[in-house]
Amino acid sequence: xxxxxVIAEYNPFHQGHALHLSYSRTSTNADYIxxxxxxxxxxxxxxxxxxxxTRAHAALKNGADLVLELPPAVSTASAEYFAKGAxxxxxxxxxxxxxxxxxxxGELTELMSLASFLxxxxxxxxxFLRQELKKGSSYPKARTEACRQxxxxxSQALLSEPNNLLGIEYLKALxxxxxxxxxxxxxxxxAHYHTxxxxxxxxxxxxxxxAMLLQNHGAFTPEFLxxxxxxxxxxxxxxxxxxxxxALSLLLIExxxxxxxxxxxxxxxxxxELSNRIKNCQDDFQSFSQFTDLLKxxxxxxxxxxxxxxxxxxxxxxxxxxxVLRVLGFRQDAAVxxxxxxxxxxxxxxxxxASSMLSPKWLYADRLYESVRSYIHQTPYQxxxxxxxLVV
Length: 392
Prior knowledge:
The protein is α/β, with parallel strands linked by helices. It has 17 helices and ten strands. Helices cover 46% and strands 11% of the residues. The strands form two sheets. Strands 1, 2, 5, 6, 7, 8, 9 and 10 form an eight-stranded mixed beta sheet that branches. A two-stranded antiparallel sheet has the order 3-4. The longest helix has 18 residues, at 360-377. The mean pLDDT is 93.
């Protein structure tokens, strides 16, 4: 049985994602596709614009057979830790045979060659990397130059394009664990990952879709809907204010001031430098996004700062891989996967959102998200423990 894994955020799920799922099935000759998906918080250090059940439902209606959730400590981590945690979860199913991911270059051989080199983390490479960073080079540029100095020349684009970068981290995780999972890559189609506007060159990016929603205050325009499969699933969000990190502003500043004497570097991803900046700049706090911009420096990117602030708010003190296989939903005709996960999975299978096997921090993060979502949208609060697993 061929079971192909896909790692995703689907924030939101769009036509490009549907194409990726279709390609993943055909290119690997998959019997089933398991998606490992970020929950209510995403890697750039923000709330998901749409809740995890809505996004999982869209995936199940457009090619996925079963969706597992990544815990917040993984879904909000840097590329290396995000990839490490996601690949580990696929491995822990005990049944995933293949992994298919998108990349800007679309060349697995090139990505694998670089991943094999970087997976070793040689002292020589680390030395040249530190030297370049001391010169003030950006991290992608420093990595590129360090590779060149070590006799492994690569283009800077290979180490700076976001999907290439994630793909390399997936491959590194597979290499380091000596995984038997077979990797595959699909050249990214349509708009660039960071493109903020729609183009005529194929599927829109998730960034562009979020930007359009913000620009139109949540209105679903005809232009927006043409990139949006299973639009009926999102009716509860139409015309509502899109969720952004600024919805957490009051909660964040209260958390920071309540523990103003705390050593913030005790939280995951918070360096001593950032901890000091947080303490020194608190009086200038206006919003989550404004504070993130205020704290960023040449050495502390905006995304790094945003993730760190979210970790403080969610009380994430360390990287913690998933300790369970948490199922968000599955297709009825793929119910055999549940039996296979029970039989071969290396972690407990959780299909009940009220399960005692879920960590308190994970449940807290879910409650916080739903509290904010229901308040912003002026809709009833949906208690996580009463949520039903999706069956499509």
